[in-house]
Amino acid sequence: MLTQWLTRFVQLVIVLLFLSVVTFVLLKLAPGDPVLAIIRASDGALSQADQEVVRESLGLSRPLYEQYGSWLLHVVQLDWGQSLTSNREVWDILIERLPATVYLALGAIVVLIVIAFPLGVLAATYHNKAPDALSRMIALLGASVPSFWLGLILIYVFAYQLNWLPTLGSGSLRHLVLPSLTLGFVMAPEYIRLLRAGLLETFSHDYIKAARARGISEWRIMFRHAIRAALLPIVAVSGISLGALLAGSVVTESIFGWPGLGSMAIEAIRLRDYPVVQGYVMFCGVCFIAANWLSDAGTAALDPRIRMRKGRRV
Amino acid sequence: MFGKRYHKTVSVSWIVLVFVLIMTGCMPDDKRANQTQSSAAGTGQDESSDSKAVTIIHSLPVDTLDPHLGWIALRAGVTETLLRLDDNMQVTPWLASKWEAKDPVTWVFTLRDNISFQDGTKLDAAAAKASFERGIADSKALAASLKIASIEANGQELTFTTKEPHPAFPNELVHPTASIISVAAEEAMSKEAFNQSPVGTGPFKVTAFVPGKEITLVRHDSYWDELAKLTDVTIQFNADANVRTLAYQSKQADIVYHLAPESLERIEKDEELTVQSVTSLRTHYFTYNPASTNVADLRVRQALDKLIDREAIVKEIMLGHAMPANGPFNATLPFGNKDAAQMLDQAGTLKLLESVGYTKGATGKLEKDGKPLVLKLIAFSGINPELPLIPLLLQSEAAKVGITIEIVSVEYPGEYIKNHTDWDLSTASYLTSPRGDGGSFLHSAYVPGGAYNPTNIHINNLEPILKELNKTGDVAKRHALTRHAVEVIQEAMPHSYIVHPNILVGIHQRVSNWKPGAEEFYIVTNKMDVK
Fold it and tell me: Is A56 part of the contact surface with chain B (CB cutoff 8 Å)?
């Protein structure tokens, strides 16, 4: 057990180190200059010489490896640095934005479950019949529709035409509905297809046929045996989805003015606020890895074969 | 395959799930219910009968309310400056009742005696001095613009000594980043907390701030000037023009900044909604590469200038919401060029290019010494929707006379042209007179080393005028010198000015005593009201 946790910790460190190097280099290679934001705020008051002084004071004129080394040295001491545009601590900014992203992630998961599970079960239950066709059509629609377009359509219908829901912002359940629907609907198709395929495969197994032969109700077969088996690939994929949700949805958050990590990231990238972007990417990396660990744990909980290692339980 | 009981269970599950979804989605919270009952615009009104609330949506999300690092604290009516701009872009007293220049580097301001910060402490010269010292320490931009060597505080008299003669010093003080704040309040509440809820002298106080989302304001009941008519204001942020427009059409906001021009027809059909189109202080222009042999000859630049169809840009691309430009400053400003902008003149272009030695070749392209005139134009790939389209129109007009323009779209043209020489012209877009004076832009864009002069353009004849401008404090003389500088710049034509875009602001009919300003500084005011 301890060895496994140690292995995972080493993996985490290696992944984060690799991620930090790639992000750092890509950010510096991308066109743009954080000093531009300061120039904009001053309406041109900073001469080119002043700009150089600012660059120097921010350490942006140093060689790349020095900048990276300095950043890494601070990060290992849990100092994520300061935003170049607002002078605020990067950690404070991330923590401040996290609750909104978690809130939206929960909303999206509820929508995803509400859409994907009934449709997946219906599609498998009525294989090659009308509900199956309908389920596949909805899945295709969800997979084809870009989230920004769906978001605007939902705003148009529910906020503008019907005036039922707020156009933008956060703070109440009503604010959560449209962004959650947007995110959940776009993510659902993958799960509909996985559940349908998993259930169809499970239905073909002998133990299901035997259960039916013994007269066990279809309800019991479905929810006691079939779904449990069909959930395995879903739980495996959910790690990636959960990681993506916790990293914040850039498009959905931007459209709905949702104050989460995604909208923060897009603004930080636009302003080339390197410490914030770097902090965000590291945070995303940790979220993805943690979500995958959770997904592994879930898979192990569902499948006893995975729990068994070298003849003993993990 | 499945029994009746199973089908029934599935159906019941579906009904329950749909019901839960609908209830979750549509159940109004108390606040919303109150809003819907009491507010025509459906926004911001609370239960109190004498409360008056307004919701504003702006396009630029902010992460901090630090008054010295951004504009939003002043825009929100939380902070104020010593001086301000009036409707005619003239500098007028605000927190300071009067000011005078003792000599070219010494400025004395007399602060009003009846002003308190929102934390109850008095605004005196010492408090203002502390505010400037904090601003200069935190904002290099503010330090660079004010050029302050020392500050002395004596009662209500604040004396600045600048590092060099700075006749535009009063103009610099109207900038939002020169806001006066209570440093005592910051020391009491920590910098982080202060930047979430800054304490100024304005008519509104911050009650809540969610970075990137909204600011909630409440009336400051001890405001030194006329008490604000509104009790509550909410400023929300959304960067998507379509969403802002839909929010306005849904009447979920009373004032919405930067509407999409293509949506105006739909908005104007609703009698409750109005739109104001105000010529901004921004200028879109082409800058020519001083190192390019293709555009080194003034006549070539003049020829290209005649190919810019400003009327078509205003009418077709910007749907009428812009003003053709004939200089860096718009014609409504006292120092703006009042002459009509250059019209599309293909014949004039051909005549000028022929005088340079260009003739039409066998392919119909203009050539000189057997070499066709091919120009590389650096264009914005994003930002304002019109900026990528303007180069396309020029490309089309140029093709008609036999000039080939190759467009290269980049995210930051200013950065590209600074680091490359393989280009002939580039698009640029800047606020040219945000402080009610043209001097700052002239120095930034036409003096080598200026912030907006990445290619270090230098015009010999301009130098003495700018020197004179740097010594002149008299406003009328500064305006005359600025106009003269623009004439000299136009003769040298390092830039071709295209248009001054308008700011499109949606204002619900219920909002009264308020109009958007070209400077976009004073959004929340004590005078704004609702019917």
Answer: no
